[in-house]
Amino acid sequence: PADIRDATQARVRSPPAPVTDVARLCVCDLLVAQCDVNCCCDPDCSPEDFSLFTSCSVPVVTGDSQLCSQKAAVYSLDVEANPPERIFKLIDQVNPSIFCIHATNYKQALYLKSPEIPTPENFDQLLDKFGGATFSAEPDSWNLDRDAQNPPDANETSRYEYGVPVQTEDAFLRLPSPVVSSWCSDANPAGFLVNQATKCIRSVSVEKCDSIQALSMLFYINSSILAVPKSSQMVNITVQSIVVQSLNGMRTLLSSSDVLRLPMVLDELCINAVLGVNYHITHTDTGEIIEAAAAFVLGAISKETLSIEQSFEISFTQENTQPVPLSGNPGYVVGLPVRAGFQPQGYPFPAAFLSNKHSQLTILHSTSTQDCLAAQGARAPVLFGYNMISGCKLRITAAMKCQPLAQTLLDVLKGQSFPEYVASFGNSQAQDVLDWVPITQLHISEQNEMVSHTLQSSCQIPVSLGIEVKWTKYGSLVNPQARIVNVTATITTTTLKQLPSGRERIIPITSSVVFTDISSPAEPSYKAWPTIDIKLPFDFFYPFV
């Protein structure tokens, strides 16, 4: 009917309700629970703080600039008032461009969803879906009802965002940490996707052991986590494991973690006191928490102990993904492993790098026997910034065959699967092609009369592997980040010649890593004053020398 068609067209023509509440959006709010200077939209700033501002660093805050019509928050300062005051206005802003978005009716475009990374297993499926000349990105259903699209709480966030405190049914998930001194403060909230590890000191008393909440497991798991902020959906914190630590430091993993162990006094000891908690949160790609677990370390406290050190840690993992250990964010941290990987053979395109077994660059690990044949398979990770050298000894007799021996030595030096690429940053992702540096492999030969084989002609065996990692300081001079720009692996071989029967010789096999900083010196931001090449009179500075 015409009236239904006209009503439907009217709903489509009407401007959409804003997805983002610009009155709550503040891009200059960088400090948590602190007032940012000249940030007029910072909710942590008081009128006294505004009176000290000289200007508004962000005078206008808008949402999506491509919308035809939207709200804009305008901030300014009334300097004539005594004291100066902040002025806030919420106005309607119209986009003058004829190419603008009138209605945002594609819900999947309102948040960032991690794309599915092609693998040999799902490549055919993705090729069938996206391999044609065209493909449809249309959602399953289009809802033209504005009221259904934009409920009253549409402006409220329906997912966790980075750094937002993880909410529980009573407040937020606590991660005790030292604030001013080394003493524990339970007011530190755990931020979403913010991996943290803290240690602090807590005052204890054996007589009051069972009444100190922070020593009980219930204090850390009794409040359920909200799946998304301000929702009624709860996620219970389950106990993943319990480790009991004795007074001498020996730890024992309990076979069952179903029974809660509460602190209690026994023979002048406080047993089952919480010494450490490790939270592990699992979330979806849309920012919804679906699982929470806690691993505990419980210990005993003697009567003479007045304080204990507690450790707390929290980590986040996206569902259906394997956590990859990082070596920095973004630049490498000295002492952490250099991340490495390889590109599988037959991969349809060089769009992803898959990590090796340990996702690390490794070298030969020296053993106590110094026997190369016994050291095969023993590897040590290459730590960023640490020059390393290791080796072993090879005993060769005249009965040994050269070619199998050469392959064995090559496996000892390079390992079973030597990587082809190294991550340029400590947090490089496998799908970011430009963040991976190929390893340049060189072979050089040295002519030495050493040992023999059963063949008449001489052959080459590898005797050393030298890895040179060139890195540079990247980014701001205030906080430079370590970035790997080049990696060269050099295999040195030597010639084996015939050895008399019954004779044997021992040759050293070495492996080394050298890190070279190739950062260019910082250039001054000013330009040097021009010089004038003239000769002054001999008494120009008289009477001064």
UniProtKB/TrEMBL annotation:
Keyword Ribosomal protein in record: no
Residue ranges of the region described as Disordered: 138-158
Span of domain Tectonic-1-3 N-terminal: 17-122
Keyword set includes Signal: yes
Single GO BP term: cilium assembly
Domain Tectonic-1-3: 158-318, 328-517
Protein name per the record: TECT1 protein
